[in-house]
Amino acid sequence: MNIRFNYLFLLSFFAFIPLNIWSTTCQEIYQAQAVFANASWNYKDELQFINALNQQDHPTNSSAYKKYAYLIKKLPFSPKQTFDILRIGFNEQIFCNPWPLRMPQIIKRLLSGEFSNSLLREINRYQQENESYSGQASFIFSDYELRSLKKNLEHIPSPFPQEVNIRDTYQQDFTSNFFYFLRKKDGKIFIKPNPKKGNKADIIKFGELEHHQENNKLGNRTEWNLFNNNGGPQLDKGKKIVQFSVASEIVFALDNTGQFHIFKPTEFKTPTKWSSFVGAPIPEKLYIPRGHKTWSLSSSLKIKPEQRRSIEFMHPDDIVHYYEDADNKKIEFGFTTTAYVLSKDGRKIYYWDTGLPANFGRAFTTPHRGNFIAQNLSAQGSTIMVIGLNPEGKYEIYTRMFDYEINGACPGEQHTYQKTQAPIPDRVLGLIEAKRRLPLPGWKKMPDILLGSEDFITTKISIELTGQGNSARMLKVRGSQNGVPGYYQKMLDATQWEFIEATQISDKTFDVYGFDLSHQALYGIDNDMNYQGKILSFSSLSPHKKHYISSIELKKFHYFLGADEPSTIEITTQNKRKLYLRLHTNDAWTLTTQKKRREALIGNKDGEPKPLFGTIIIPQDAWLSFDPQIKYLLHLFEPFHMKMNAFAVLASDEKVVLRSATDFIDMDDDYKSKNLAEVTMEFTREDTQPGYYTLFISQPKFFIKNTEDKNHISSIIEKNQQLLRILKNDKRELRNESLKNGIVATGVNLTFQAGKRALFFSNNDLVNSLRKFVAHAVSQYQNINFSEFFSEHNAKQAIEDAVRHVQTRIKKYSELL
After folding, report:
1. What is the pLDDT of residues 457-488, one digit of tens each?
2. Residues 6 or more apart from 617 whose CB is under 8 A from it?
3. DSSP H or E run through 740
């Protein structure tokens, strides 16, 4: 070994060796860091060990080696190989770029295989350079030594995947710039440059996107590193990240308590920091709904360099910029980062975006109007992809565009069901100037994947952005062809799938993820609901003609249907004729709703009604009727025909109330204020399904399966005691939320009423947008009884009943011990 180190010392003086081979090493980086470090973090040991490796003295004689010998000896190499590997790691910046590491960290990560790929890359480079020097050892390692080092390193494989092809919230994700990976044991997120599109020398470091300087060494930059040098948000003891999703470099992470945390590097304020409070106008903690299957993050945003670091931080393919409405006009996005959560029954998709209050109180149904049992979803660019079973039990894949901004619900934007101006070639309309035509296309079935006798697909799916416009999306489905693992892929509008071989999709063994058939019993249940109705008031209905209306019904309704899925108001006249009115509904913008994992209470008999906006459209064939009673009804409803969001709607499983906006701003008539007739319709049905809390306490995990197993009985009793604590906590939180909601809603309503009048005297685009926001966001609810909307009575009674049932169950089970 002494001879070898003498050779190293002398070799640096030979002319055929470039003198900058060892320049900018870890030694220089550590020295620079030590200037700013405190006494307890000055890299003294590391510098001493590097000096010992590069001098004539044997490293084992250094005090640094003696200090860490117990760790170094754990490496499965000979002493000579150990020093060679450490020398390569220090001299090629693997142990200090992008992050300077201490010796214990270096040894620990060497043992786990985290540096294996980086070291193998350098060894391969050394071999190539040896060959280019006609066998001369330019890096003092012989071919034999390099082959031996390589062989030993390959016995410690990297714990990370080589690349990521399928998005999966449980472990991996990717953008055009980076691969992302979640280490499950400690909940740390790792990042690696995506060589397919991005600059492979970039790294996210201390909240900034740091660019590699040309001609500098890459070190460990091209391999997996802790995201932002901390691997995620700094959480309290006992918490860790268990799932995550990435969109346009925005990272959304879920911890083991069900709370979300966000890293959003799109603002000019730097450095970017993790936030555990999200939403607007009042940031709060956001929790994933109880009983969900899976979730995914999507980002749709326009290029806005004056307000965001989009261009700096994101690959152009990840900035979708615009979408096309029902008239094929190109309309720019604002900033729409949306999280989509698939419910446990697979029938609805909850969603939240960063501009909404911190809850998942909004949702839309899966294909077939919610009669499709989705098994998995993936989302990107406001486009959702689902795979699951149709009402006949056959697998299908569907996609659709849906977010709060584009589906007619967003205040301050102009939407209409009437035909608008023709598309302007190569013109993208701005947020305020655009008049958006509804409805957007709904769920679209994708072509079936043609499989051979030995081929299969799984429910592991992902969707990714590939550029601008609605169709710039790549779809992928994990599967196998002829026994070879990989995935099937196609562009959104393509008619056929192609198979791509991918033997290293993740670090796990390639498994078959089958379809969940646990909800087969739901196939016979129609998600749509039918209600019997009555007109409570109609100011323009002549008293002597009230008898024209024999009955009124609301059919095929659900409060989570999209604008493209209308329900029907069926009016039967005295002479048995029928008038059918289409009712299109959108989410209403509200500051308040049930939060913290109780979204299933919305619309449920144990919870609160769902606030919506409604638009009535009279079908074209209705105008052809010659029946006098039908013609009279057409006369009554014609003022409401296609008037966007002319009705405020409160809907639940048991009751739907429609109330007209008497002080109405007509978006289709230059924002003119109009006095519509005062109309209130109420529709009711008998809901025979159990309430939320009855189902919640009736889950199989809370019941004893073996009365002879004492340990099993004790375990079930403990689960029921935990359930009891959850119920009591729900009661307390619901009471507090109801009080806060009532105060906030009343105060905001009064403020908006004053604001609406103050804005009445101006008529520019911005003020018109604000007036529309005021009129359609809150003021249409001014006549709704807030005590009904925010009442905790139903939930309070349901919780108290559930508590009594659980207490009785615990007592009964305790008697078995």
Report:
1. 999 999 999 988 999 999 999 999 999 999 99
2. 417, 566, 581, 582, 584, 641, 642
3. helix 710-758
